[in-house]
Amino acid sequence: MLTILLRNYQGIEVVGQAENVDQGIMLTLETNPDLILLDIQMPEKDGFTFLDELKELGIFPGVIFVTAHENYAIRAIKNAAFDYILKPVIKSELFKSLDRFKEFSSRDNEGQFGELIQMLKNARPGRIKHKQD
Predict the structure, then answer these.
(1) φ, ψ for residue 82 (rounded to 5)?
(2) What are the E-state strand segments in 29-118?
(3) CB neighbour list of residue 25: distance below 8 Å, 6 or more residues apart
(4) Paired residues of 65 in beta bridges
(5) Amino acid 104: pLDDT
(6) Which of 109, 110, 12 has its CA nearest to residue 64?
(7) Contact status, residue 69 vs residue 46, Cβ threshold 8 Å
(8) How does pLDDT run across 63-91, given as a tens digit for each residue?
(9) What is the pTM of this model?
(10) Helix or strand or coil: residue 112?
(11) CA distance 1 to 21
């Protein structure tokens, strides 16, 4: 259904679909997408496991959860999800989310956000001083 909805959205190319986490990881490695529309419930592993596996590989695409489970929204936000859309998907809501993602991505002038993530990953542990009054 999402693929059909996305046909009507300018500037999006659907590079593939996966039925489970392992297929999703392989597809992500092959296509390097900017954005992933991700469900929480999948066979064998869930969407959060998918994100954990991507993080282990050093891959950080944008993620919009599209799910029937409203009780995972906080966990999704803590896992850096860009948005959280409940099923059944309303076309206008999906398109607004995609518009916001495109706007956010366009602010990433010449990959500055990606460079920041890379710098943080390579940074050594530091110390923070805190003065008490």
Answers:
(1) -75, -35
(2) 35-38, 62-67, 83-86
(3) 50, 53, 54, 57
(4) 38, 84
(5) 85
(6) 12
(7) no
(8) 999 999 999 999 999 988 999 999 999 99
(9) 0.78
(10) helix
(11) 19
Tell me how far apart the alpha carbons of residues 10 and 96 are, in angstroms, rounded to a whole number.
Answer: 12
Six-digit token string for 105: 């991505």
Other residues' Cβ atoms within 10 Å of the Cβ of residue 64: 20
**Distance of alpha carbon 92 from alpha carbon 26, whole angstroms:** 30
96 phi/psi in degrees, rounded to 5: -65, -40
Residue the block writes with tokens 């890379």: 118
Instruction: Please name every residue paired with 85 in a beta bridge, in sequence order, or none if there are none.
Output: 66
81/112 Cα distance (integer angstroms): 19
Whether 31 shows a pLDDT value over 60: the answer reads yes
Q: If pLDDT is split at 50, 70 and 90, which confidence band does 1 have?
A: confident
Assign 3-class secondary structure to the chain. CHHHHHCCCCCCCCCCCCCCHHHHHHHHHHHCCCEEEECCCCCCCCHHHHHHHHHHCCCCCEEEEEECCHHHHHHHHHCCCCEEEECCCCHHHHHHHHHHHHHHHHHCHHHHHHHHHHHHHHCCCCCCCCCCC
Q: Where are the beta strands (DSSP E) in 3-89?
A: 35-38, 62-67, 83-86
